[in-house]
């Protein structure tokens, strides 16, 4: 979903997110706030490692449940109760985030185990579908039930071995998914619905970034803080503009025009794996921007804060570059915008000791705006060439 791979919508009508899905997303507002808060101030390498580790399981469950809702369009009481229970489990995981790497690890593990059982409940009816859409029973039993039981058992494992168990279980889920290659998926994905759902998650993390800017002003009610907050908002606005004008449109076109098997693989890689890095990058930026507002009166940002902010922007562009390559763009066309998009934030981070907080945010905002303008120029040229 590269912001620089502009395309026009393919015009295919698609269903939209239902009220239950939108209600379900609310728990991720709390999750995003908890995770982003853990990177406020001056995070170290351990803090970043814990952040990325704790973010993946809920993200992975969200994308699994989203695909389930996409394939099984059902608004019955059974599905509603399952999804509400999943919300409760994810809320428990969110509450455990501040100490999930120490005293609350058991709650985090049990919450995730509960979501695997929800996934089993959603997929089990598909084991009774008529061929060729029938799902083999061993797949939900291994991918959902066995995984859930092992996650529940991990609650009794003391740290740090508990985290090694989690890593092994997540890796096993990845292996099961990658080896399946779409076999046993009952029907074609509704690509428009999937792109919309992923876009809504991006809106959630962008919203957390805006909320962080607003609440951080409580601790720094000064003109400098206001300047940094305005620059930070401009940065987020540029990311929103480029993502939804070009990135999500390109994704819907590429997924919608692909065959069923290729559409599944593209959706798995782009929506499932690569958007983890897109959304994680925005949450890092949210924490860095909030800290920049709070420390606007300092000579420069703390090292951890600037890497959360600038490193987050570099990761955001890097993830989009890989997405563009996955969609078949040539390396040379991607490098034109990806190299400066990654290099400039890294240079800002390296030189941050010589940059006031407002200047560091200004440089990153300028990069995001130039990125957007380049995308618009490229899009206009393509439309002109197509019309000719």
UniProtKB/TrEMBL annotation:
The lineage of its organism: Bacteria, Bacillati, Actinomycetota, Actinomycetes, Kitasatosporales. Keywords: Membrane, Transmembrane, Transmembrane helix. It holds the Pfam family LtrA. This is Low temperature requirement protein A. The chain crosses the membrane at residues 19-36, 48-69, 81-100, 106-126, 138-157, 163-182, 194-215, 221-244, 273-293, 305-327, 334-352, 358-375.
């Amino acid at each position: 979903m590269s912001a620089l791979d502009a395309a026009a919508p393919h015009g295919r009508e698609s269903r939209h997110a239902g009220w239950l899905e939108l209600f379900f997303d609310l728990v991720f507002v709390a999750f995003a706030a908890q995770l982003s808060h853990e990177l406020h101030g001056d995070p170290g390498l351990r803090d970043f490692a814990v952040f990325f580790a704790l973010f993946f399981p809920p993200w992975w469950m969200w994308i699994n449940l989203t695909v389930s809702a996409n394939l099984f369009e059902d608004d019955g009481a059974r599905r509603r109760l399952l999804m509400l229970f999943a919300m409760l489990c994810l809320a428990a995981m969110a509450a455990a985030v501040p100490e999930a790497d120490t005293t609350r690890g058991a709650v985090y593990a049990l919450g995730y185990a509960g979501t695997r059982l929800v996934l089993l409940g959603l997929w089990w009816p598909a084991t009774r579908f008529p061929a060729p859409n029938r799902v083999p029973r061993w797949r939900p039993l291994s991918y959902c039930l066995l995984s859930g039981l092992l996650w529940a058992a991990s609650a009794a494992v003391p740290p740090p071995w508990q985290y090694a168990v989690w890593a092994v279980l997540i890796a096993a889920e990845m292996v099961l998914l990658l080896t399946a290659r779409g076999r046993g998926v009952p029907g074609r994905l509704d690509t428009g619905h999937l792109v919309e759902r992923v876009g809504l998650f991006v809106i959630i993390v962008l919203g957390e970034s805006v909320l962080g800017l607003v609440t951080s002003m409580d601790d720094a009610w000064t003109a400098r803080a206001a300047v940094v907050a305005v620059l930070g908002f401009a940065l987020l606005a540029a990311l929103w503009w480029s993502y939804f004008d070009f990135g999500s449109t390109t994704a819907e076109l590429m997924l919608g025009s692909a065959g069923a098997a290729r559409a599944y693989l593209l959706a798995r890689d782009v929506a499932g794996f690569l958007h983890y890095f897109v959304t994680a990058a925005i949450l890092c930026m949210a924490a860095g921007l909030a800290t920049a507002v709070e420390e606007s009166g300092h000579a420069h940002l703390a090292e951890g804060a600037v890497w959360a902010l600038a490193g987050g922007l570099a990761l955001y562009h890097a993830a989009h570059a890989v997405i563009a390559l996955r969609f078949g763009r040539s390396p040379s066309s991607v490098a034109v915008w990806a190299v400066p998009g990654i290099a400039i934030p890294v240079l800002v981070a390296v030189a941050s000791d010589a940059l006031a907080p407002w200047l560091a945010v200004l440089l990153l905002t300028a990069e995001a705006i130039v990125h957007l303008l380049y995308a618009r120029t490229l899009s206009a040229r393509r439309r002109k060439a197509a019309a000719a």
